[in-house]
Amino acid sequence: MKGRRPDLSALEREILRAAERARVDAQEIADRLRGDAQAAAEQLRQEAIAAGERVKDEAPRKAIHLTMIVIPLAILYLPLPLVRWVLVFFGILLIVVDLFKIHDARWRAYFKRFFGKLIRGHEETGITGSTYMIVSALLATYLFTPPVAAAALVFLIVGDTLAAMVGKAFGRVPLFGKSLEGFLAGFVSSFVAAWLLVPSLPWTAVLAAALAGSIVEIAPIPVDDNFRIPLVAGLVLQWLV
Q1: Looking at the 3D structure of the chain, how many domains does it have?
Q2: 0.85 cut: is pTM over it?
Q3: By the 8 A CB rule, do 129 and 226 touch?
Q4: Are the C-beta atoms of residues 108 and 94 closer than 8 Å to each other?
Q5: Would you say residue 180 lies in a domain?
Q6: Which residue in 158, 226, 227, 224 sits closest to 187, CA to CA?
Q7: How buried is residue 73: exposed, middle or buried, by Cβ count under 10 Å (0-12/13-18/19+)?
Q8: One domain, residues 145 and 216
Q9: CA distance linking residue 4 with residue 14, whole number of Å
Q10: Which of 33, 102, 182, 187 is the most exposed place for a label (fewest CB within 10 A)?
């Protein structure tokens, strides 16, 4: 007895239906993946725009902040008495400007017109961060050896700048009114910058001082961070070396 011949046309139709279902499923998966990719790209774009908006007002201030890297470089490579005299000159100049700004409304209006985007609200009627920085730099040249003084100022100039920019742009985890992301960025960048600028210092001491400076930066201490960061970090570094 001969076996029944298979129905090839039915088998072919089943294969074609299976292939069509697979094609439709693959198309649906591809469409979902494309949609997810487009949504993720749009979310990243929106987050990038939002991050840019958050740092837009801070960027000019921090750009000027970074130019102060000339101070630790001068401490390392120029005669220390000359550096001190220059710091005294600019310190007195800035203090005089601040006093006029605090006590004279017209001077305060002129100051705000020219530097309004570069100062914080409390600096309009008080001492500016630049004044605190110059004073702390001058004190550092007397309290610490030149390598330690230079590193202490790098903790402020580089670490504080990166902490502020990263914190405003990407900060998500709150930490003492600031952000964990900003704290970590400031800590790592200040350590790397100081270690590269002053390689003669032990890296372990630089690491500990960078951590101290970063902790002081986020701590709710009622003293301007331009003053407290280099002095506290410098004291820790000087003690360890």
Answers
A1: 2
A2: no
A3: yes
A4: no
A5: yes
A6: 158
A7: middle
A8: yes
A9: 19
A10: 33
Please provide residue 168's backbone torsions phi and psi, each rounded to the nearest 5 degrees.
-70, -35
- What is the residue range of 122's domain? 61-240
State how far the Cα of 210 lies from the Cα of 192, in Å rounded to an integer: 9
Other beta carbons within 10 angstroms of residue 184's beta carbon come to: 17
Distance of alpha carbon 161 from alpha carbon 59, whole angstroms: 9
Please check whether residue 154 is in contact with residue 88, taking contact to mean a CB–CB distance below 8 angstroms.
Answer: no
In a domain, 122, yes or no: yes
Of the candidates 217, 192, 220, 218, the one whose C-alpha atom is nearest the C-alpha of residue 206 is 192
In the 3-class helix/strand/coil scheme, how is 51-65 assigned residue by residue?
HHHHHHCHHHHHHHH
If asked whether residues 32 and 89 sit together in one domain, one would say no
Query: Alpha helices of 68-179 — where are they, by DSSP H?
Result: 70-77, 80-103, 105-115, 129-143, 146-154, 161-170
Neighbour tally for 219: CB within 10 Å: 14
Name, in order, each residue with C-beta under 8 angstroms of 220's C-beta and a sequence gap of 6 or more: 176, 177
Q: Are residues 12 and 129 in the same domain?
A: no
Query: Are 31 and 68 found together in one domain?
Result: no
* 132 and 213 share one domain: yes
The verdict on 142 and 218 lying in the same domain is: yes
Largest CA distance in the chain: 118
